[in-house]
Amino acid sequence: MTVSGIDRLRSQLSKLEDMFPGYLTEIVEGSIVMNPVRPFHGRSIARLWEGLERQLPPGWALVTDVAFPFDDDNEFCPDIAVIPAAAEAENRSAYEPDLIEFVAEVVSPSSIRRDYEVKPRWYASRGIANYLIFDPLQGHVVTLWNPGPDGYHGRDTLPYGTDVTVDSPLGKLTIPTVRLPVDPKVTGRP
Q: Are 37 and 46 a contacting pair, CB within 8 Å?
C-alpha cells in the first residue's frame, strides 16, 4: 500500500468512527475491525491510566486509542501505550510503533483473539519490553515480557485483586487491580 493509500484508509477509518460512535476502529491483518466499547472497557482504561500516569518517569507520557501503523495490514490503537512525552506533545493521530515503551490492552468479547494472539507477536517483534493484557471477562491480567522476533518469552497470569508489579525499562511499575471491573459472569467473583 502506498502512502496515499494509507492516508485514504485512515480517512475511511475516521469516517467509520464518526458514523458509528461507540466503536473503536483498527486495521488488523488487513481487515477493518470495529469493536463496540463497553463500560467495563472504559472504566478499566481510566483506572489503569490513573495508576500508571503518576509512576512514569519524566519524559514519558500515556496515550490511548491513537494509531500505530505496524505495516500495511496492521494498525493498532492500543488502550494504553507509553511513548516519549515530546512525541505525545505533537498531538498526532498516528505514531511510529517504535516509540512504544510499554503497552496494555483491555480485552472485550470481540477482541480476545487479537489481544491474546495477534498483538503479542507484533508488539514483541518491535521490541516492546512489556505487554499487559487486562481481562475483565476472566478477572485476570497477563503480563508478557522478554520480547523476541517470535513473540514474548516470559508470561504470568495473575488474578485481579492484588497489585501487579512490572520491571520495565521505565522502572518498577505497580498497577493495582483490586478496583478493576470484572464481568459478573466470572465464577466466584462479586
A: no
Q: Enter the DSSP assignment of 80.
A: E
Query: 26 in helix, strand or coil?
Result: strand
Rounded to whole angstroms, the Cα distance separating 126 from 134 reads: 21
pLDDT, tens digit, for every residue of 160-173? Answer: 999 999 999 999 99
Phi, psi (5° rounding) for residue 143? -105, 130
Contact (CB, 8 A) for 115 and 122? no
Does the predicted TM-score (pTM) go above 0.85? no
Neighbour tally for 80: CB within 10 Å = 21
Cα 56 to Cα 124, 137, 182: the distances in Å are 21, 28, 26
